[in-house]
Write a structure and sequence with these properties.
This protein has about 270 residues and is of the alpha/beta class. The chain is built from twelve helices and eight strands. The chain has helices spanning about 40-45, 75-90, 100-115, 135-150, 150-165, 165-170, 170-185, 185-200, 205, 225-235, 250-255, 255-270; strands at about 5-10, 10-20, 25, 50-55, 95-100, 120-125, 215-220, 240-245. The longest helix has 17 residues, at about 135-150. The two termini are about 30 Å apart. It binds D-malate. The site of D-malate (MLT) has 7 residues, from loops.
Amino acid sequence: MSLRQQEVAGRATQFIDQGKGAPVLLVHGFPLDHTMWVHQLDELSKHHRVIAPDLPGFGQSVALNDAQSSTPLTMPRLADWLATFLDTIEIAEPIHYCGLSMGGYVGWEFASRHRHRLSHLIACNTRAASDSDLVRRARKVAAANARTHGTELLAETMAPKLVGEKQTHTQPNVLKSIQSMIRRTAPTSVAAGQLGMAEREDMLEFVQSIDFPTLFVAGQDDTVTPPDEMESNAKLTPGAKYHCFENAGHLVPMQAAVSFNKVVIDFFEQPT
Ligand code: MLT
C-alpha cells in the first residue's frame, strides 16, 4: 500500500496512490475515510493507478476547526476540491470515478462541474435525489449532536445501519472497521458534512443528461440507499448499467469485495 501526503489547497491531505495505468479515483462515504477501499487496492492496481484520498476533514487529513464545523461542507465544494487535488498530483487525463454514498453525491457534482475530467462513473450505494425536509432537519440535529457529544453515539447507532441488520452478525469485522473509522472522524467534520449533505441539489434531472458510461452498484440488504431506488435512478440514466450484490448492505466494496472488484474492472474496460 502506498500512502502519500500532499498539501492540497493549503491543507495537508493523506491519500493512497498505487499502481500504473488509467487513473481510478475512489471517493469514500460519510463519515468514513480512504481505508474503506482496502479490499480494492491490490486488485484494481493490477490494472490501474488507484488514488484514494481522505476528503478534507476526514481520515488522516487535517480536521476542520470549530468555526469550520458550522459551514456546510457542500458537495460542489468537495467536487471542486477533488479537481484541485487531481491538479496538485498532476493528473490531467480523464479519470474513472468510483464514489460510495456521500462519495457518489460528490460524483454527480464532479461530473456536472468537471465533465472533461471524467471517463467512467460508478455510483455505489448512493442516490441522485436531494433530502426530504424531514431528513434535512434530522441532519441539522445530528450536526449539533456531533459538536456537543462527539462521535461515540454515531459509531454505536449509525455503523449497524450502514453494515445492515443481518451483516452486523455475519460480518463483525466490517462493523468493527466502520466503527473505528467513525470514532476517529473529528466531530467538527461530521457536523460540516451533515450540513453539506442537507444542502444537496436534486440531481435526478442531471442523471438523465449523462453521456458517459455509468454503473450503479447496490447492496441487496441496503436500507440507507435501497436497491429499488438505485435501480430506478439507473433506469433514468442513458445507457447505465445496474448491479445488485447479495449479502451486502450499504458498503458493497467492503461486503462483497471479490465480486465487486471483478464487476468494476470489467466496467472500466467499456469504451467511452
Ligand atoms: C454515507 O454513507 O456516505 C452516508 O450514509 C450518506 C448520507 O448520510 O446520506
